[in-house]
Specification:
5-stranded antiparallel sheet; about 210 residues; mainly beta
Length: about 210
């Protein structure tokens, strides 16, 4: 109960993940979808965690894409209940950012595990991504290591992804960045290079 001063003890839910970044998103029902890299296969997978009166129950493991190693997932949900997932597909020595969505709570991503989704980046040795959703679009931010931060956008009503637009350039750019939608509906970006730097998009220009 609020103010949430007494938290329950941690309970093991997933025991087959690599020691690498994961992400989770909560839906309107209070259930969680968790994305992580499978330890045995290095494939990106998800599990839906359902909350009950007695605790969390982990659902069946679902493979997002079975054609290559997958890392650094980022999950978001849109008002219509669709789940969106961005991740890094790796075929050594290069990586690409891909995006897929699910309309059934993560039971199937795209058309299934053989579907790679949309490749939305150029090849890069080091690259990371973050998703942000406003009232009209889903935005994909991609940090090309030691180079630049770019954004592409997709209308929530459907259509096509925009071309890359550069938000920030630096030889020191890495994985330390975050994005958010402001109260006024704009986009905000914080980049650590090597100290936090802030930029905001008001719908017309980056300030």
């Amino acid at each position: 109960d609020s103010p949430y001063l007494n938290l329950a003890a941690p309970i093991p839910i997933i025991s087959d993940s690599e020691d690498s970044p994961f992400d989770a998103v909560i839906d309107a029902s209070g259930d969680l979808t968790v994305a992580y890299t499978d330890q045995a296969t290095s494939r990106l997978v998800t599990r839906r965690l359902t909350i009950t009166a007695t605790g969390w129950t982990a659902g069946t493991k679902v493979t997002v894409y079975d054609g290559a190693s997958g890392y650094d997932p980022n999950l978001q949900s849109t008002p219509d209940g669709r789940l969106w997932l961005a991740w890094r597909r790796q075929v050594v020595p290069s990586s690409w950012i891909h995006v897929k969505s699910s309309t059934n709570g993560g039971a199937v991503w795209g058309s299934g595990p053989t579907d790679a989704g949309e490749q939305l980046s150029f090849a890069s040795t080091f690259i990371w991504s973050q998703l942000a959703i406003d009232s009209a679009n889903i935005h994909l931010f991609m940090a090309y290591g030691n180079s630049y931060l770019a954004v592409r956008s997709y209308p929530l009503t459907g259509g096509a992804w925009t071309a890359e637009s550069t938000v920030y350039s630096s030889a020191g750019l890495g994985s330390d960045f975050d994005v958010a939608v402001t109260d006024s509906g704009g986009l905000a970006v914080v980049v650590c290079d090597p100290h936090p730097r802030y930029r905001e998009f008001d719908g017309f220009t980056w300030g």
